[in-house]
Amino acid sequence: MSRLVVIIAAGSRGDIQPCVALGRGLSARGDKVRLVASSRYEPLVAEAGLEFAPLTADPTEILTSDEGQEWLAGGRNPVRFLTGLKKIVGPMADRLLAELLAACRDADLLITPTLGFLGEHLGDHLGIGRALVHFQPSQPTRAFPHPLLPQARLLGGAGNRLSFGAVDQVAWQLLRPFINPWRAAELGLPKLPLYGPMRRVRAEGRPVLCCFSEAVVPRPADWPPQVHVTGYWFLDEAPGWSPPPELAAFLADGPPPVYVGFGSMVPKDAAATGAVVRAALRRAGVRGIVSDGESDADILVVRDVPHAWLFPKMAAVVHHGGAGTSAAGLRAGVPTLVCPFFGDQPYWGERVHALGAGPVPHPIRKLTAAALATAIRTAVDSPGMRERAQDIARHLKEEDGVARACDVIATL
């Protein structure tokens, strides 16, 4: 019997694409799938043949606002990250929560992110099952600290494990003023205590789908069986997609270029950052493909080209370190340099470097033409780095993360 599976995919394109891939996999198995996301991504969802429910919050508008720029400036600090999120979400919280409830009213199963534990509140109200999605390691473990709290590793295994609870608690205390009134007024549920829903979620063994690969994040021995490291959920380009003529001509006209792009991240001074990137590419003596500005003989500007098609044709890729873009770079089998802005991006940059698939990450706020040029040359000139990237790519291409996730969801 077909079920209606509702996937909540709040965030930017890097958060949406894996959920679209998962939704397409579930649909192919007979489930009806509704994806809840920003209105900006309706065409992407519709192209996949999935039902769409809009959220009236635009991630690009948020990141270009004064509050968004302040949020980006918080870097990896978990308190600044979550406080910045509260400042942005606060004025629209009631509206977004109402939109989420409306999108889920007839659902049979919920697939939701960890932040706010929205699936718990909605699932209890509707009396249906739910599973959590982790785009970065968010399950407590002694093996490593939470991606937002790397300092905890100084306290050993106990500190590592406690760091996950600490981040969960900071998030809950900031979101509780919005969530608890919503539970009482709209969902008919009791308000949750100060410590929040996390203990219950983990005590009841709520299924967790980890949208990353064990080749990138080895599974800790102390994760319980309900935590499933499925592999990445890749959404490849539509069949028959072909590059614009100017891109095909540029690629054919010389050695493989280096891609530099920061996705939905918006530098505070985009023009200055663009100048640094162009100066670095020329200083490194490489051709470049970038996502902003004007094209030149040695640098081509492209927009909205599928990473799965473009990245394997590059000598190296430079990006912000979002979970989805990092996965695409590793799958392409080329060296990756991460220039993180905030959140979990530094973590993915560290993972790429630790795996031997890219240079040391260079935070965007400290980026200079000289440093970027040196890192690009390191990525391009290192046979060992390229070989390691290709080894990881072979492993990722053998995985079918969508199929594994669908297998788990089929049991719920």
Report the major sheet: 7 strands, parallel
- Low-pLDDT residue intervals, each spanning 5 or more residues: none
Radius of gyration, taken over Cα atoms and rounded to an integer in Å:
21 Å
- Strand element count: 12
Number of individual domains: 2
Cα end-to-end separation:
13 Å
CATH topology of the largest domain: Rossmann fold
Mean pLDDT: 92
Mind sketching the topology for me?
Blueprint: E1 4-8, H1 13-28, E2 32-38, H2 42-47, E3 51-55, H3 59-64, H4 66-72, H5 78-89, H6 93-104, E4 109-113, H7 118-126, E5 129-134, H8 156-187, H9 198-203, E6 208-210, E7 227-229, H10 245-252, E8 258-260, H11 270-284, E9 288-290, E10 299-301, H12 307-310, E11 316-319, H13 323-332, E12 336-338, H14 345-354, H15 369-381, H16 383-398, H17 401-410
Parallel strand pairs: 1-2, 1-4, 2-3, 4-5, 5-6, 6-7, 8-9, 8-11, 9-10, 11-12
Helix pairs in contact: 1-17, 4-5, 5-8, 11-15
